[in-house]
């Protein structure tokens, strides 16, 4: 089961950030060459969040002691012991990450199908809303679950929905609208939607 | 109710120089306490029911024992040595287990990454072999012969030097660091971390120092130590699990972590579990 966690555009090379998917806290990061990855947000050494770490080349390093990990989540280097070959058993739990239609998707293990492709649209923005997924979608009048579609401010939108908790979700918004005025109006409508949802307003 | 092994220890509860006549309402081991001055400048620490605890005024701080002290407050002989400046750094509240705060203080391998260009810098990341022991005669954890390259080891250090350290844990929430003293070869600067456990996941940390340094303004000494500790806080509030795991399985120690391994073993065998978790998740 794929969960959208960010717009591809918002995670450039050498960036790492925390995301939640399927109830798990993950470190989402992109290597220098552009490879996207989503790992358990915890260094196995001392439990520090890897989302506070740093990316060099194709490896993610923990900010606490600089332990670095390669594409398979295997430990490459322990700076306190530069001559030590890290044992194979030191590994970060790796999730599957993939990109489709300007979105980054993650799954706990490789699903049978590729992630949903929203088609040729432009990324607009992501926003987090302190309200449950179903309430937000019905208030917005959008239909669908993982990829919800409809109109906001008179503009056609596709929203990739990331459930984060019972009363929190993130919306990753794509649109075919190319004009600046339309995009600004849509963005403002999303702000208004967030305020209404967080104030507890329900769909009529 | 916490166990006797926990209640019979000494804990810092206030900085004497900052405790005014109005006193201080705070917490210890999850329970409210009040710290103030009784007659003749004697510190007084009371539980919510008014019961007075054993107290000491030492190393700039007021100490309390909520149970029956199992031993006298630990000694830091250097505190009385002439010529040292005693530095009250103040307090930093940290959303972490008090034990994680102590353990981090015992760790040197993080210097190049957390205290970059101050206490460490790449490529000088190697932690050489050092000695660790639980000294049975005093029931303390000691690490000695710890060496590390530092770009600016102390406020009084001008440029990079290899610093030698000794670490000492005389009580579960106290750590004392002895480090090479740039202006006074042969002596050790003393830097302590006194940790007040408010809750299992919340503590107040009181760094305190006894230094040979007649040059640096007091404000700079305090700022230096605060800078270092605020860098540590960004780590301490982001470790998972929040409680310190005393059993192996959750975390992977290496040779550089032997002080931490000894500290955890020492806590476990004395039944000190406040801020700890015993079952590997």
Automatic annotation (TrEMBL), chain B:
Keyword Oxidoreductase: yes
Protein name: Aromatic ring-hydroxylating dioxygenase subunit alpha
UniProt xrefs under PANTHER family: 3-KETOSTEROID-9-ALPHA-MONOOXYGENASE, OXYGENASE COMPONENT, IRON-SULFUR DOMAIN CONTAINING PROTEIN
SUPFAM superfamilies referenced in this protein's UniProt entry, alphabetically: Bet v1-like (SSF55961)
Protein's organism: Paragemmobacter amnigenus
Disulfide bond is among the record's keywords: no
Alphabetized GO MF terms: dioxygenase activity
Gene3D superfamilies: Naphthalene 1,2-dioxygenase Alpha Subunit, Chain A, domain 1
Highest taxon of source: Bacteria
Residues annotated as domain Vanillate O-demethylase oxygenase-like C-terminal catalytic: 94-269
Keywords (A to Z) from UniProt: Dioxygenase, Oxidoreductase
Extent of the signal sequence: none
Pfam families hit by this protein: VanA_C (PF19112)
């Amino acid at each position: 089961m794929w969960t959208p966690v960010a717009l591809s555009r918002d995670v450039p090379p050498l960036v790492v950030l925390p995301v939640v998917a399927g109830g798990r806290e993950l470190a989402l990061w992109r290597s220098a060459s552009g490879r996207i990855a989503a790992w358990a947000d915890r260094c196995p050494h001392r439990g520090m969040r890897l989302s506070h770490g740093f990316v060099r080349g194709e490896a993610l390093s923990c900010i606490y002691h600089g332990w670095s990990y390669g594409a398979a989540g295997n430990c490459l280097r322990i700076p306190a012991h530069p001559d030590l070959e890290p044992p194979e058993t030191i590994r970060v739990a790796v999730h599957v990450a993939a990109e489709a239609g300007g979105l980054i998707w993650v799954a706990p293990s490789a699903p049978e199908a590729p992630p949903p492709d929203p088609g040729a649209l432009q990324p607009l923005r992501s926003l987090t809303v302190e309200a449950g997924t179903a309430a937000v979608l019905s208030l917005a009048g959008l239909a669908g679950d993982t990829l919800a579609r409809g109109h906001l401010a008179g503009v056609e939108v596709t929203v990739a929905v990331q459930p984060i908790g019972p009363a929190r979700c993130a919306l990753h918004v794509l649109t075919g609208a190319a004009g600046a005025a339309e995009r600004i109006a849509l963005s403002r409508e999303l702000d208004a939607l967030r305020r209404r949802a967080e104030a507890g307003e329900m769909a009529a | 109710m916490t166990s006797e092994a926990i209640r019979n220890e000494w804990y810092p509860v206030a900085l004497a120089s900052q405790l005014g006549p109005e006193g201080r309402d705070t917490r210890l081991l999850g329970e409210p306490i009040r710290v103030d001055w009784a007659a003749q400048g004697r510190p007084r620490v009371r539980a919510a029911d008014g019961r007075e605890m054993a107290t000491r005024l030492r190393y700039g701080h007021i100490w309390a024992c909520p149970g029956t002290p199992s031993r006298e407050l630990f000694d830091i002989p250097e505190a009385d040595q002439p010529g040292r400046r005693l530095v009250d750094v103040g307090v930093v509240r940290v959303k972490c287990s008090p034990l994680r705060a102590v353990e981090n203080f015992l760790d040197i391998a993080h210097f190049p990454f957390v205290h970059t260009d101050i206490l460490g810098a790449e490529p000088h990341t190697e932690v050489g072999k050092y000695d660790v022991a639980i000294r049975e005669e005093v029931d303390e954890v000691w690490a000695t012969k710890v060496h590390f390259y530092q770009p600016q080891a102390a406020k009084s250090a001008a440029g990079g030097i290899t610093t030698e350290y000794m670490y000492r844990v005389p009580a579960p929430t106290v750590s004392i660091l002895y480090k090479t003293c740039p202006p006074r070869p042969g002596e050790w600067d003393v830097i302590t971390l006194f940790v007040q456990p408010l809750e299992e996941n919340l503590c107040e940390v009181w760094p305190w120092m006894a230094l040979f340094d007649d040059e640096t303004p007091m404000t700079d000494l305090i700022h230096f130590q605060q800078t270092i500790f605020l860098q540590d806080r960004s780590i301490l509030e982001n470790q998972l699990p929040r409680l310190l795991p005393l059993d192996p399985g959750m975390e992977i120690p290496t040779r550089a972590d032997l002080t931490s391994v000894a500290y955890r073993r020492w806590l476990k065998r004395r039944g000190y579990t406040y801020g700890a978790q015993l079952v590997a998740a």
